[in-house]
Design brief:
Its cofactor is heme. The protein has 505 residues and is mainly alpha-helical. It has 18 helices and eight strands. It is globular and about 105 Å long.
Length: 505
C-alpha cells in the first residue's frame, strides 16, 4: 500500500496540469506552423500561376514579397505610371505585396476590349470603399447592378439636367461672393475646400431637392473634412500590408479614425433622407412629386418599391446614394479644381475662355443649358484639363473569362486588370507631348481613338453623372482672373493630400 501526503498529491496534480498545458501548447504551435506552411504553399503556387499567366507581359524587376511597392512611395505613383507607359505603352503587370499582381492597361485598344465586356469590379481594389459608400451602384455587380442602374438612369435624363444648370449657377454665385469677400484680404485662396462645398451644394440641390445653401452651414464643413479623410484613409489602406484584415484594421488608430469618419458621413446622409421624407409626408407633397415628369435621384429612391413590395429601408437608401453625394462630390470638386489650376497656369487660354463666356453672357446674365454648347473653346480647355488631370486615375476589373487583345496577347480568367486612365491620358503614343496643355487636341473635327479619352470611363459601367462636366462651364465666369500661388504648387497624387499642396485626382 502506498500512502502520499496532501502536499505530494498537490505537486503531482500541478505537474499533471503543467504537462497537459504544455501538450496543448505544442499541438497549437504545430497547428499554427501547419497553417503557415499551407498559406506559404498557397502563396507560392499562386505566384507561380501568376508568373506563367503574365509571361507575355514584361515588367521591371520586383521584390518577391513587396512587389513593386518597395521601390515607389505613394507620392511617386503617377511618376511611376508615366515612366512605365513609355517603356510598356500597351500594358504591364504591377506586382503588389504578398505575391499578388494586377495588369495595368494604358492602351485605347486594350481599354476598348475590357470596357466592352461585363467583368465584375475587382474585389481587392474596391472592398475597402464598402464601409463608407456601401454596396450601391458603384460597387454592385451582375443582375443587381443592372436593376439599380436601370432604376437610377432616369434621374440623369437630359430634361432633368437642363434644370440643374440654373441651380449650379446659383451655387457658383454663392461661392464667388464668398471669394470676393476673402480676396479683399489680399492673400492666396485654397480653392479646393470651397469648390468641394459648392459641388456638394449643387448635388444636394439637384439630386436631393435640398433647399437653401449648405455652403454657409458649419456642419457641412465637418462632413467635407470626413469625406476627404476617408479618401486618404481608403487609399493608404490599400497599400498597407498590415491593414488588409478587417479585424486587425479595426483595432488600429487609423481603423478607428476610418470608423469615426464613416459615422460622420452616414449621419449627414441620414439627416438629408429624413428631411426629404418629412417633406414628402406633408399634405399634397407626395402627389405633387408623383405628377412630376422626371423625378430626381432621392425621390426615385424614396418612391421605389423593393421587389417584395416594401419601401426601401433608410440603410438601403443611404447605401444607394452615398456614392453620388460623397465620392462623386470629391471627384467633381477635384476635377473642377484642376481645371481652374490648368487655366491659372495658362493665362492665354484663360483669357480666351473669359472672352468667350463674356461674349455670350455679357455682364451679370445667368448661364442656361442653351449656352453650354456655345462655348467651344471653354469646352476644349475643360476636356484638356480632364485629360491632363483625370479625377479618377484608374478603375479595376477581374476577368471572368479569358481575354485576347488585338495584338494577340492574352490573359486567363481570374486576373485583375487596372484600366489606368492616367496612363492612357499620358501615353505619348496616344497623345504626342502628353505633358503639354494643348486644348487644340479637342478642336472640332480632330480625330481621336474612341477610347483615347476616358475621364468618365466607358461602356455600360460608365459614369452615370458624366454630363456634369458639361455643366462645369458656369464655374469659369469672367468675375476673377486666376493666378497660381508660387509658394504652394499642387502636386498630383492618387490620394487627397493637404499638407504640401498636393491634390488628388
Ligand atoms: C468630374 C466629375 C466625375 C468624374 C471624373 C467621374 C468619373 C467616374 C468614373 C471613371 C466612373 C467609373 C468607376 C468604375 O468603373 O469603377 C464613375 C462611376 C460612377 N459615377 Fe462618376 N464621375 C464624376 C462625377 C459624378 C457625379 C456628379 C455623379 C452623381 C451625381 C457620379 C456618379 C457615378 C456613379 C453612380 C458611378 C457608378 C456607375 C456604375 O457602376 O454603374 N459621378 N464616375
Amino acid at each position: 500500500m502506498v500512502c502520499s501526503s496532501p502536499r505530494a498529491r498537490q505537486n503531482t496534480n500541478a505537474s499533471r496540469l503543467l504537462g497537459s498545458v504544455s501538450g496543448i501548447l505544442q499541438v497549437t504551435s504545430l497547428l499554427i506552423l501547419l497553417l503557415l506552411l499551407i498559406k506559404a504553399a498557397q502563396l507560392y503556387l499562386h505566384r507561380q500561376w501568376l508568373l506563367k499567366a503574365l509571361q507575355q507581359f514584361p515588367c521591371p524587376p520586383s521584390h518577391w514579397f513587396f512587389g513593386h511597392f518597395q521601390k515607389f512611395q505613394q507620392d511617386q505613383e503617377l511618376q511611376r505610371i508615366r515612366k512605365w507607359v513609355e517603356m510598356f505603352p500597351s500594358a504591364c503587370p504591377l506586382w503588389l505585396w504578398g505575391g499578388k499582381a494586377r495588369v495595368q492597361l494604358h492602351d485605347p485598344d486594350y481599354m476598348k476590349v475590357i470596357l466592352g465586356r461585363s467583368d465584375p469590379k475587382s474585389h481587392g481594389s474596391y472592398r475597402f470603399l464598402a464601409p463608407w459608400i456601401g454596396y450601391g451602384l458603384l460597387l454592385l455587380n451582375g443582375q443587381t447592378w443592372f436593376q439599380h442602374r436601370r432604376m437610377l438612369t432616369p434621374a440623369f435624363h437630359y430634361d432633368i439636367l437642363k434644370a440643374y444648370v440654373a441651380l449650379m449657377a446659383d451655387s457658383v454665385r454663392v461661392m464667388l461672393d464668398k471669394w470676393e469677400k476673402l480676396l479683399g484680404q489680399d492673400s492666396p485662396l485654397e480653392v479646393f475646400q470651397h469648390v468641394s462645398l459648392m459641388t456638394l451644394d449643387t448635388i444636394m440641390k439637384c439630386a436631393f431637392s435640398h433647399q437653401g445653401s449648405i455652403q454657409v452651414d458649419r456642419d457641412s464643413q465637418s462632413y467635407i473634412q470626413a469625406i476627404s479623410d476617408l479618401n486618404n484613409l481608403v487609399f493608404s489602406r490599400v497599400r498597407n500590408v498590415f491593414h488588409q484584415n478587417d479585424t486587425i484594421y479595426s483595432l488600429t488608430s487609423t481603423g478607428r479614425w476610418t470608423h469615426r469618419a464613416c459615422q460622420l458621413a452616414h449621419q449627414h446622409t441620414d439627416q438629408v433622407i429624413q428631411l426629404r421624407k418629412a417633406q414628402l409626408q406633408k399634405e399634397g407633397e407626395l402627389e405633387k412629386v408623383k405628377r412630376k415628369k422626371h423625378l430626381d435621384f432621392l425621390d426615385i429612391l424614396l418612391l421605389a418599391k423593393m421587389e417584395n413590395g416594401n419601401i426601401l429601408s433608410d440603410k438601403d437608401l443611404r447605401v444607394k446614394w452615398t456614392h453620388s453625394c460623397s465620392r462623386a462630390d470629391t471627384t467633381a470638386a477635384s476635377g473642377i479644381s484642376w481645371i481652374l489650376y490648368a487655366l491659372a497656369t495658362h493665362p492665354k487660354h484663360q483669357e480666351r475662355c473669359r472672352e468667350e463666356i463674356h461674349g455670350l453672357l455679357g455682364d451679370g446674365a445667368s448661364i442656361t443649358w442653351n449656352h453650354l454648347d456655345q462655348m467651344p473653346y471653354t469646352t476644349m480647355c475643360i476636356k484638356e484639363a480632364l485629360r491632363l488631370y483625370p479625377p479618377v486615375p484608374g478603375i479595376s476589373r477581374e476577368l471572368s473569362t479569358p481575354v485576347t487583345f488585338p495584338d494577340g496577347r492574352s490573359l486567363p480568367k481570374g486576373i485583375a486588370v487596372m484600366l489606368s486612365i492616367y496612363g492612357l491620358h499620358h501615353n505619348p503614343k496616344v497623345w504626342p507631348n502628353p505633358e503639354v496643355f494643348d486644348p487644340s487636341r479637342f478642336a472640332p473635327g480632330s480625330a481621336q481613338h474612341s477610347h483615347a479619352f476616358l475621364p468618365f470611363s466607358g461602356g455600360s459601367r460608365n459614369c452615370i453623372g458624366k454630363q456634369c462636366h458639361e455643366q462645369l462651364g458656369p464655374t469659369l465666369t469672367p468675375r476673377f482672373e486666376l493666378l497660381p500661388d508660387p509658394t504652394r504648387i499642387p502636386i498630383p497624387t492618387t490620394c487627397l493630400k493637404k499638407s504640401n499642396g498636393s491634390r488628388r485626382f
